[in-house]
């Protein structure tokens, strides 16, 4: 699979994913009373966003044909 996540999309995934993962851990650890189900969902979604942001590869982007990387043409 080629890279299809870049720019603001990548930054947003990493930042929001990190926040969601931490919120999920806090909820599951009992530090934040939002419920276990919401904590698990937040944690899983956060991890997915972190992984797709750091690897720059998203299967859903590929399925719908979306590419947010900035392609720079090389000049000779």
TrEMBL record:
Pfam families: YgaP-like_TM
Record flagged with keyword Transmembrane: yes
Top-level division of the source organism's lineage: Archaea
Location of the Inner membrane protein YgaP-like transmembrane domain: 1-69
Residues annotated as transmembrane: 12-28, 34-53
Keyword Transmembrane helix: yes
Taxonomic path: Archaea, Methanobacteriati, Methanobacteriota, Stenosarchaea group, Halobacteria
Keywords linked to the UniProt accession: Membrane, Transmembrane, Transmembrane helix
Source organism of the structure: Natronorubrum sediminis
Name of the protein: Inner membrane protein YgaP-like transmembrane domain-containing protein
